[in-house]
Amino acid sequence: MDDIFELLKGKQGESDYENKGVIVQGITGSYGSLHAGKMLEYGTNIVAGVTPGKGGQTWNESIPIYNTMKEAVDATNAKISIIFVPAKFFLGAAKDALEAGIKLLVAIPEHVPIRDTMETLELAKQKGAIVIGPNTPGIMIPELIKIGIMPPMPFKAGKIAVLSKSGTLLYEISDALTNAGFGQSITIGIGGDPVNGTRLIDAFDMVKDIPDLEGMVVVGEIGGDSEEMLAQKIIDSGFNKPTVAYIAGRAAPKEKRMGHAGAIVMGTYGSAESKVSMFNKANIPVAKRPAEVPVLLAGKMEKSD
Amino acid sequence: MQLLEFQAKELFREYGINLLDSISSTNIEEGRKHAKKLGYPFVIKIQVPVGGRGKAGGIQKCQNDDEFEIKYPQVMDLTIKGEKARAILLEKMADIKKELYLSIFLNRSKRCYTIIASAEGGVEIESVKNQIIKEIGLGEVSDELAKEVAKEMGLEGKHAEGVADTLKKLSKLTIEKEAELVEINPLAIMQDDTIMALDGKFVTDDNSNFRHPELEKYQEKTAIEEQAEKSGFSLVELDGDIAVVGNGAGLVMSTLDMLSDNGGKPACFLDVGGGATTESVYEALTLISKLDRVKGILVNLYGGIVKTTVVAEAFLKAYEDNLIDLPVFARLKGTESEKAKEMLQNSKTKIFDSVEEAINSAVMGVK
């Protein structure tokens, strides 16, 4: 599997270093079109759009549209794609992208059937590609590249990695971090679905060896066991950069789905208590509220100095 | 969505899994007819979409008409984990030799279907001992694997064959209907050595509903939930008195947590969603206005995709139409929040800079 930073910005000395091409699938839809514009504004190098049946046209009078991902990849050599098609059509779009050689697939759609996600992941594994999402706000290196739907205001370049299951909490907590002087080296929204292309532990693997990483923030929520797995991995790997967590959903009733498909507690499975206790075991403080995250992080950093 | 036991059993029957005779009813007149048809003794089972029915008195043995007249209404009146009875299932009494456990579920972390089986069943999954766990990918269970599971459960001969057969049918059902979880607990070995599903649990993947029109009849939503779904937001009713409105499931959950920490009681979880419009937020406020227990509204917005002005407009319209006459405590941040604050300046909405202040005022305000 390729290194995420290399995929997002390339190797130093490459002709398109810090300027990687991105293809937008579903660029002519209202959502795709809106966010293609916002990504362009942010500085993301959008090189092509794909909408079956609209090949040969251009989007925004500048970006060529292709009928298939194969044509788009052949023409642009891009390795990154972001998908904005309705959930029903996600599997087809994802297969099209992976077969065409895409190495980083950012899957925005919400309500993708789980089986379709799993089929996508099987194919991605064969092809050695990274899938972020579905139901993700996206991934970004602040002030360099944004592949997603996140607003730009909360984020600032820096040295903290933020991994999050929740979209709005990713914004909220990054905002709190930025205000406290903690910029972000990378932020990854893994998505609120039960099955994620990139799990928290995978996201951790992607960022743990960043050379100038100064700390990590994990934003979790009830449901599943990905926070517990991550805590165990942090214990096992001996990762010792200052890390702080936040878990949403302590007050949520059991057996009720709280908005996200994945946010549901069954029995003790997926409860906030279980996640908090595992993070405590890993010596990772868990903030009670988003505003507490930078405070705890600063405390951790002082100790590690 | 979790189906009721009798609905899960309808699917089990369709796939040839052995079941006792049973009939469901929604009132006692219907129940009496079914009792006659089924014949005593039988078991009265409450139909609610949550577990723990037995402990709560929702499963009762019934020997004769007199018992039936007492127990049917008793069970019908129960509320279990906040859920009222949707129906009552009458089921023939079982002559059980041994109880087993069998389920197939979608393993989030391994990203594949996984079997859990045990030679000890009849209790909740957390207390099922000696679990046999097999990851099975995305396809159906093979003959070999089914036999292996039965063997590992310590079964032999007819019992092993019966369980392997049940497991294969269960896996076909799981795959074809795209279930997140299918569980038989207990799966019983009867005195006559047949294998019988005594209870059934089935959780659908609602995102795949468009491929399964045949499951539509099982969809059960409150009027409010249905309206919420139509308008593109997500709403969970809770039993407190402060309605919590926000954007993004994580942020709304986080607001619920902070509100509870500060002594407030949430009346609902309302995520206006990424595609919120003035109309959809107005719809949401209409729903909230119908919840009698609500004494105040707490709004926590981080405008990214959603413009905070969209929400402000909806509130102004709601005031204009006399839709809401409740105190509103709002924290607005992000896209166009300065403009939104200005819009709401002279309205009944109190604006706060931090979510903490908004929460504290809301808690004080509804007392």
What this model shows, in words?
The complex is a heterodimer of chains A (305) and B (367). By secondary structure, chain A is α/β, with parallel strands linked by helices. Chain A has 2 domains: 4-132, NAD(P)-binding Rossmann-like Domain (Rossmann fold); 153-302, Rossmann fold (3-Layer(aba) Sandwich). Chain A has helices spanning 4-9, 30-42, 69-76, 90-99, 114-127, 167-179, 200-207, 226-237, 272-281, 292-304, and strands at residues 21-25, 45-50, 58-59, 63-66, 80-83, 104-107, 130-132, 138-141, 145-148, 157-164, 184-189, 215-221, 243-248, 286-287. In chain A, the strands form 2 sheets. Chain A has a 7-stranded mixed sheet with strand order 3-4-2-1-5-6-7, with helices on both faces. Chain A is globular and about 55 Å long. The model of chain A has no long low-confidence stretch (mean pLDDT 94). Chain B is of the alpha+beta class. Chain B folds into 3 domains: 21-92, Dna Ligase, domain 1; 96-206, D-amino Acid Aminotransferase, Chain A, domain 1; 221-365, Succinyl-CoA synthetase domains (Rossmann fold, 3-Layer(aba) Sandwich). In chain B, 35% of the residues lie in helices and 28% in strands. Chain B contains 11 helices and 18 strands. Chain B has helices at residues 5-14, 28-38, 65-76, 143-152, 157-177, 223-231, 249-261, 278-289, 308-320, 337-344, 355-365, and strands at 22-25, 42-47, 59-62, 79-80, 83-84, 87-92, 96-107, 112-118, 132-137, 179-190, 195-197, 201-204, 234-237, 242-246, 266-271, 296-303, 328-334, 349-352. In chain B, the strands form 4 sheets. In chain B, strands 7, 8, 9, 10, 11 and 12 form a 6-stranded antiparallel sheet that branches. A 6-stranded mixed sheet of chain B has the order 13-15-14-16-17-18, sandwiched between helices. In chain B, strands 1-6-2-3 form a 4-stranded antiparallel sheet, covered by helices on one side. The relative contact order of chain B is 0.09. At the A-B interface, helix 5 and helix 6 of A face helix 7 and strand 15 of B.
